[in-house]
Amino acid sequence: MLLNALRRVGVFALTVFVASLVVFFLLGVLPGDPARAQLGLQASEEQVQALREQLGVDRPLPVRYLEWITGFFTGDMGVSYASRSPVGPQVLDALQVTLLLVLGGIGVAVLIALPLGILAAVRHHRPDGTLFSGLSQLGISIPNFLAGLLLIAVFSVALGWLPSGGWQPPVAGVDFLRHIALPALALGLVNGAILARYTRAAVLEVMREDFMRTARAKGLKPGAALVRHGLRNALVPVVTVTSIEFANLIIGAVVIETVFVIPGLGSTLIRAVANRDLIMIQSIVMCVVILVLLVNLLVDLLRPVIDPRLRIAS
Amino acid sequence: MKETHTMKKLFQSGTPLAACLAVSALALSACGAGGDDPVNGEDEGGEATSTGENSDANISIGMFAVPANLDFTTTGGAAVFEALLYNVYEGLVQLDAEGEIQPLLAESWEISDDGQEFTFQLQEGVTFHDGTEFDADIVKFSLERLDEWSANTPEALAAIDSVEIVDDYEVTVALSEPDYNALFWLAGPLGAMFSPDSVDDLATDANGTGPFEFVTYENAVRMEFARNDDYWGDPAGVAGVELVYYEDASAAANAIRTGGVDAILRSEAFDQFESFEAEEEIEVRVGSSQGVVVMSMNPDHEALAQDEVREALHRAIDKESVMAAATAGYGEILGGPSVPTDPYYIDFTGTYDYDPDAAQDLLDSADVDDLSLTFNVPNRAYAEASAQVIQDNLSEIGVDVTLQTQEFPAVWVEENMVNQDFDLTIINHVEPRNMNNYAFPEYYWGYDSEEARDLFAEAAAATDDDEYASSMEELTELLVEDTPGVWLYNPPNVGLATEGVSGLPLNDLGVGIDLSDVTVSE
């Protein structure tokens, strides 16, 4: 088991390294000049060249890669071309916002998916079970930006209950909750619908298992059998899918942050691309890559804890 | 320092010296009167003069273009100086709401007869927010530092040769050649006065002499100013200003509807203005901008080098339809390269009327058929909408146009302005008086006319407004005749204000957005 864990950590490190190469060299061939982007339409070629030298973007790619990657892993991500201030704190601030948003989204997704998925499975032969399935199908087909716009139209513009955008840090308490409610809902709705379908399938499968029949034979009612024996077994695929959905949620957050004017990684990334703020783009993309890999690693390591059968298999 | 009509008239018509003396006298008396009446009585609508302004109020204003940082000396784009100039930073002179040059840190000035020496008498008792005193040394330092600027066209003031300190409160700026535009540029970002101790952290902090002190800038999210209680002129009408940055027009529109912001400036939610106009509690204010949306035609292209072909394209384009698609019809149709707020503006919209038949005849007489052109379109909504209408218009006279979308600014600037690899391209030139670039054949417009360059030189050598305007008018006429581009429209500057907010500037003059007159009633 320890060996298995070590192997997974090794794969993680290698993937991070390869990802850093891909990210850096792809950005290196991206058309558009960072210096020109900072100086605007009116700057002369001499002014642009001078800034190119000052930013160091006229040097060979391998040199810049080594400088960036050593800096990245020693905590010095460099200075943003656009804001002229250190990249590190800016990325961390944005990361914190996005993580809260994504966690909120996962929370919403799980709160929707578990009851909806279980009910749809348990009552799959009845009209209301079909209705729950239908609801989740509908949820999957709504893009999250549209969900965001609809939520704003209803809860902010029409009803005036919640702000239409903006962000408050968690220390703001109630104000934080008011600001995160709609974006987390928009983000979580779609993923909740997807997760609900997996939950339904997993529960249905578990209900057909022999041990469930045994539990019923011992005299447990269907509900009690499901709660005591079924759900734990259905949880493994659900947790795996949630971790895959985590990557989707981060991507979804990019869009949701724009709709709700939230200063997270997504909006920072989009602006950095427009500004050709290469050092900022690299650092953000690397952070997202590491985050997603880290979550996958954690889930890989956690699965044997949830399901003892997997310990033997590995 | 808010000027009156008398002051403007004196300044426009009198001899420079007499005018300046009068201006300084008025300026001093206005200063002495103190800040009892911060409200400009001429403000349209007149609501501001009613009682109930709350000088302790804060205002939150939604903005569009996002400042990358705070240093407009090395960062292009209008977003940075629009926010800071006239609010935090001040220059020797400023543009008023009508675009006229007015005194600011210089209470008066004289221009020598040969147009090569500008002598400024400075305001006394002015300090920077960090306590540094403003005097002639500051002016010398700031203007000599233009050499270190890399953005916002420092070459526009390249004529400045030296800055001589006459005494603590008088400086003479000597030009290497006459340049009547110099005062105009001094009223913009290039004229901002900096304290020598603050220039190392211009990107992250702002220390000026203006009516507001800079408080904070959360990158791309919000900027905050607080009233400068030690301001040398009339105090600002609100205690604090928060500029909130939006990248999405609908998000900003939702914010003003739900009370997230009190006003929006530079709004581009064109499709929503009609519904805002129907709402009682929100006022839609349509002013004009400095922008010229121009379709440029590359003279290196064999067909486009011919006058008749360019005129044919100009006549084939239905500008009304273009503007309807781009801005829902808000804005002014243009016939030439100048905008209505330019002192030399002439309406040329009748010169090349929309007339596909005449356009077809012109093409025929130039013996051009089967013309196919590549149209490089920046990925901006207005440009994409305009280009589609133009493509359709040109197909009616048998010109086949292929649209090629390019990311703006990164790719578009590189391909069109640097490599000049285009047949047709379109952009909104937002810089004030951008038609000056027709003087440079190497600019991407590729306009090369000896006659035009002579007229530019003649205008620069002017020593009064009339002389300057008449040269520029003649020049505009020449440009329209040669039609190196198709000037489509002047985009509107649209502001939205909730009830109780007044004093927001109506027009975008390409300088700072002066927020010192803004008031909020209770």
Structure report:
The complex is a heterodimer of chains A (314) and B (522). Chain A has 314 residues and is mainly alpha-helical. Chain A folds into two domains: 2-73; 95-274, Orthogonal Bundle (MetI-like fold), CATH 1.10.3720.10. Chain A is 79% helix and 0% strand. Chain A is built from 13 helices and no strands. Chain A has helices at 2-28, 34-39, 45-55, 61-73, 87-122, 127-141, 144-158, 174-207, 210-217, 222-259, 265-275, 278-306, 309-313. In chain A, α6 (127-141) packs across α8 (174-207). The N and C termini of chain A lie close together (7 Å). The model of chain A has no long low-confidence stretch (mean pLDDT 85). The model of chain B is unreliable at 1-50 (pLDDT under 50). In chain B, β6 and β7 form a beta hairpin. In chain B, α8 (307-316) packs antiparallel against α10, α9 runs antiparallel to α11 and α13 packs antiparallel against α14 (465-482). Helices cover 27% and strands 22% of the residues of chain B. Chain B has 522 residues and is an alpha+beta fold. The longest helix of chain B is centred in the C-terminal third of the chain and has 18 residues, at 465-482. Chain B folds into three domains: 2-67 and 210-289 and 492-520, D-Maltodextrin-Binding Protein, domain 2; 89-201, Dipeptide-binding Protein, domain 1, CATH 3.90.76; 292-490, Dipeptide-binding Protein, domain 3 (Roll). In chain B, strands 8-9-10-1-11-19-12 form a seven-stranded mixed sheet. Chain B has a six-stranded mixed sheet with strand order 14-18-13-17-15-16. In chain B, strands 4-5-7-6 form a four-stranded antiparallel sheet. Chains A and B meet through α2, α3, α7 and α11 of A and α6 and α12 of B.
